[in-house]
C-alpha cells in the first residue's frame, strides 16, 4: 500500500467518554459516523462506539446507514438506532425500511413518501437559523406534525442545529435556542410526546456557555430524553473557540494516524530545483526523501513550500521532515538532511502524533474536518 490509516479504538472510546461526561447526566450522546466516520472507517468506529455505550448513530444518507446497520447487527448491536441526518428521496424508502433506519424530515412531502409504514418513527428538524434544512416553528411545523399523524407515523424526535456553536456568548445561538423552545412548546401543545429532543454538537459541548439543564429542561417538558450529536470530537478534534477558553478540546486525542513509506532517498546539490516550477531551490547540499502520496490522496497542495515560505511537514524516525517544493498529485519530497539513517522503506507519519489535522488545516486555510475527510489511503 502506498499509504494507510491506523485507528486507535482506545482513543476513540476515550474521546466518547470525555464528550459524554461534558454532556451531563441525563443527556445522551449520538455518535455521528457520517462520511465514513470522517474517513476513520464508519463501520469499525460504530462498533467500537457501541461497545463503549453509544446507542444512537448519525449518518448522512441511507446508503451509509445500511452499511452501519449491517456492521452493528453483525456485532450483536441489533437494537442500535441510526438517524439519517441529511434527508431522503422517495427511492430511498425501501432501503430505509429494510435497514431499520430513522429518517429526519422537515416537509409534509417527505412524510407522504413514508405513508403506509405505520408506526415508523421520524425525527423533525426545526429551522431556527442555520438556513439549510428544517421547518420553521408555526405554520410550517404544524403542517409537518399534521402530516405525520395523518400518515400513521410517529414523532420520534425533535431537533435543531446551531450555526455558531463555537462562538462564546453568541447572540445567534441565543436566538436559535429561543426558536427551538417555541417549537418544543408547539409540539407539547399538540399533545405529541417524542422520545428525544436533541440539539448541539462537539463544539457546543466545548463552549463554556453549554448548560445541559437547558436541553434537559426542554426534554422534560415533553416527557422526553435529551441528546447531543457529536462528530468531530469523537475523532480528536474540535473547532477553536472564538472568545473563550476551551472546556473539551484539549482533552481530546487524535484517533487517526495516516502513514506512508519512503520510496527513494537521494542527494541534491546546491542550486538544484525540487518539483514543479522549481519553487524550491536547494541552498546547499541536501538529502531528500520521496513519498508516494500527494494531493490525489488528500495531502493538500497548499502544504507546498518555497525558499521564502515554509510549508507542511511529516514525521520520519520521530523527527520533523519539512516538505520541500510543490506537493504533486502522487508524489511529495521532504528534507531528511538532519535525520540520521533515513532510508527507503522507512515509515512516515503524514497525520498523527507530531503533525495533526489542525496543523494541515492552518496551512491550507481550512478546518480539520476537511483535512480528515479528504484522506484517501490506499
Structure write-up:
The chain is α/β, with parallel strands linked by helices. It has 2 domains: 238 residues, Alanine racemase (TIM Barrel, Alpha-Beta Barrel); 118 residues, Lyase, Ornithine Decarboxylase, Chain A, domain 1 (Beta Barrel), CATH 2.40.37. The chain has an 8-stranded parallel beta barrel with strand order 2-3-4-5-6-7-8-9, surrounded by 5 helices. Helix 3 packs across helix 4.
Which percent bin holds the helix content?
Answer: 25-40%
Gap between N and C termini: 6 Å
CATH class of the largest domain: Alpha Beta
What coarse outline follows from CA principal-axis ratios?
elongated
Taken together, the total number of domains comes to 2
Rg of Cα set: 24 Å
Task: Kindly identify the CATH topology of the largest domain.
Answer: TIM Barrel
Provide the residue-averaged pLDDT: 97
Total helical segments: 12
Poorly predicted runs: none
Oligomer: single chain
Across the major sheet, the strand order is: 2-3-4-5-6-7-8-9
The major pleated sheet works out as:
8 strands, parallel, barrel
Amino acid at each position: 500500500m502506498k499509504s494507510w490509516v491506523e485507528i486507535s479504538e482506545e482513543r476513540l472510546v476515550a474521546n466518547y467518554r470525555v464528550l459524554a461526561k461534558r454532556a451531563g447526566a441525563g443527556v445522551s450522546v449520538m455518535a455521528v459516523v457520517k462520511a465514513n466516520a470522517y474517513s476513520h472507517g464508519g463501520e469499525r468506529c460504530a462498533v467500537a462506539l457501541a461497545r463503549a455505550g453509544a446507542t444512537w448513530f448519525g449518518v448522512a444518507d441511507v446508503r451509509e446507514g445500511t452499511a452501519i446497520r449491517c456492521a452493528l447487527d453483525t456485532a450483536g448491536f441489533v437494537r442500535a438506532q441510526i438517524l439519517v441526518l441529511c434527508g431522503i428521496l422517495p427511492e430511498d424508502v425501501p432501503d430505509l425500511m429494510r435497514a431499520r433506519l430513522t429518517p429526519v424530515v422537515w416537509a409534509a412531502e417527505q412524510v407522504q413518501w413514508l405513508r403506509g409504514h405505520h408506526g415508523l418513527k421520524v425525527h423533525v428538524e426545526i429551522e431556527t437559523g442555520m438556513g439549510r434544512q428544517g421547518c420553521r416553528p408555526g405554520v410550517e411545523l404544524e403542517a409537518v406534525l399534521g402530516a405525520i399523524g395523518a400518515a400513521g407515523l410517529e414523532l420520534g424526535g425533535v431537533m435543531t442545529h446551531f450555526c455558531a456553536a463555537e462562538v462564546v456568548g453568541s447572540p445567534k445561538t441565543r436566538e436559535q435556542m429561543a426558536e427551538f423552545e417555541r417549537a418544543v412548546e408547539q409540539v407539547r401543545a399538540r399533545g405529541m410526546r417524542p422520545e428525544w429532543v436533541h440539539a448541539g454538537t462537539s463544539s457546543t459541548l466545548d463552549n463554556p456557555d453549554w448548560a445541559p439543564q437547558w436541553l434537559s429542561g426542554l426534554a422534560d417538558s415533553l416527557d422526553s430524553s435529551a441528546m447531543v450529536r457529536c462528530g468531530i470530537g469523537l475523532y480528536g478534534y474540535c473547532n477553536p473557540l472564538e472568545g473563550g477558553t476551551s472546556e473539551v478540546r484539549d482533552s481530546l486525542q487524535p484517533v487517526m494516524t495516516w502513514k506512508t513509506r519512503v520510496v527513494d532517498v537521494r542527494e541534491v546539490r546546491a542550486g538544484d530545483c525540487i518539483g514543479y516550477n522549481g519553487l524550491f531551490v536547494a541552498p546547499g547540499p541536501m538529502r531528500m526523501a520521496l513519498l508516494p502520496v500527494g494531493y490525489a490522496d488528500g495531502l493538500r497542495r497548499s502544504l507546498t513550500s518555497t525558499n521564502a515560505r515554509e510549508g507542511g511537514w511529516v514525521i520520519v524516525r520521530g523527527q520533523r521532515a519539512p516538505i520541500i517544493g510543490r506537493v504533486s498529485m502522487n508524489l511529495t519530497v521532504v528534507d531528511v538532511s538532519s535525520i540520521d539513517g533515513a532510508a527507503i522503506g522507512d515509515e512516515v507519519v503524514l497525520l498523527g502524533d507530531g503533525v495533526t489535522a489542525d496543523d494541515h488545516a492552518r496551512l491550507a486555510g481550512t478546518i480539520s474536518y476537511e483535512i480528515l475527510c479528504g484522506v484517501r489511503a490506499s
